[in-house]
Amino acid sequence: MSFADLNLDPSILRALTEAGYESPTPIQAQSIPEALQGRDIMASAQTGTGKTAAFTLPALNLLATQHPVRSRGPRILVLTPTRELAAQVNEAARKYGKFLRARCVSIVGGMPYPLQNKLLSQPLDILVATPGRFIDHLERGRIDLSRLQMLVLDEADRMLDMGFMPDVERICDALPAERQTLLFSATLDGIMDIGKRFLRDPITIQVAGQKDKHANIEQRLHFVDDMNHKNKLLEHLLVEPGVNQAIIFTSTKRHADLLAEDLYAAGHKTAALHGDMTQGARNRTLTKLRHGDVKVLVATDVAARGIDVHGITHVINYDLPKFAEDYVHRIGRTGRANNTGIAISFASNTDRHLLRKIEQYTGHKFQPAVIAGFEPKRAVRMDDGEGRRSNGKRHGSGNGRPQGKSGFRGNNRDGGNRENREFRGNRENSSFGDRVMREGQPNRARDARQGEQKTDREVNGNSKSYTKDTDFQFARALTEEFGQRRPRSSNNQPANKQERFGNPNGHRGNNKPRATGNKSFGESSPKRPRSFA
Ligand SMILES: Nc1ncnc2c1ncn2[C@@H]1O[C@H](COP(=O)(O)OP(=O)(O)OP(=O)(O)O)[C@@H](O)[C@H]1O
């Protein structure tokens, strides 16, 4: 099938040819004809399979016909759970709607109101928004909904998880009842109820069951003894041939910052991406990732959601996600648009319950892999319902020596010959990530210091303290900011990991580069923390 068979407006076909698209992906081939018929749709497909175009193209096709009502308001509203995703959808709509001269605007939280007010006062066709900021503008009477024909709920599963459904309900109540509604999600599990509430007689389209998904992503698992082992393995993996760009996921924003700083100091073009950064900083980091100026992104779940960057060859789960759905979204940052990718997860024996949840969700059974020179010292237990045990599958050349194209310095997990290590000066006897490691382990001296732990305001004038640490707390912060939202139940878990861990240095962020001594990875010297590339 070709795009020409889909009955799309010629100006859209021209834009697709210019984008280099030859034929529709399965989700596009199935959704576009139904959407063009005016049907409401609930659709799910694997990450990276072109869901954005699956709803954007029929939405744009509406614009080829003039609306009878002459007003300025949007004809299409796309709601996304995150700001980054909104920016990406907006960009895609502009690309595909280039020859239609579609007027697309993105309105998200964290950006100044005056500019958004100005954008909303101009005539527009497609409005891409996060629910909270949309409601803000709606309540202030800044959005004219009289022409609205189509609502798209993108990443509906995530909107549900992040507690946006009450907002979505309020928005749906305000929209014309005669609209068409398209719902796209990575999974339809738990979404059916939403379909009944917000869609009219929807057709359900599911491309590949959960078990068939991600065939193009090689999923590896490495058992690790401790943080030190994890860091050595990470150092090794990042310099393996074939790594173009990588996203490393950590469980906390604080750890994302620390790991990014240390990787940067080790010579990797690294940046962090998480919800404590300003939206401007998040956008700049993503632009650098897109341009290849950032090679290693250390991110948390919310911030990295939906990132579509072609060069990402590797996803590394430095910490396993707490929710199996997040695993699927993480690994989906690689292997996009028919490419292949590698997803590597680190786990210890205490993570087995998380592994089991992921296995149940994805239908993919992990076979622990071992890289020569990086074998776990503790016996690996991969128990499942059948009592399976494994000591790990050997991965790599198996010549007994660690691999890596250059600068390997990791086969020395107990310290050993530290003179040859890169981190000298004030970082003697440490490897990158050691601070992350120290933060993750019990430390009496540090615990004793906890009472005097400083906030960032005290240290560097930044009002953010790192006491709120997980993405789910970020979701909660959004809830507090915009009212009404219902964070998922696990938000109520003991929140303050970071408070428990304390801070080994008593403070952070003095913005001074650390001495890095002989670097083996790259040449540049660190100049500042956080946005390092
Ligand atoms: N028909 C096509 N031919 C070639 N490339 C395509 C086609 N459709 C989409 N793409 C490209 O595939 C990539 C992934 O598309 P998209 O971001 O829409 O995936 P997705 O399913 O929404 O992923 P996620 O669930 O992770 O957000 C994009 O870079 C897009 O440009």
UniProtKB/TrEMBL annotation:
Enzyme Commission code: 3.6.4.13
GO BP annotations, alphabetical order: response to temperature stimulus; ribosome assembly
CDD domains xref list: DEADc, SF2_C_DEAD
Region Disordered, residue ranges: 377-533
Swiss-Prot/TrEMBL catalytic activity: ATP + H2O = ADP + phosphate + H(+)
Molecular function in Gene Ontology: ATP binding; hydrolase activity; nucleic acid binding; RNA helicase activity
Protein name in the entry: DEAD-box ATP-dependent RNA helicase RhpA
Organism: Methylophilus rhizosphaerae
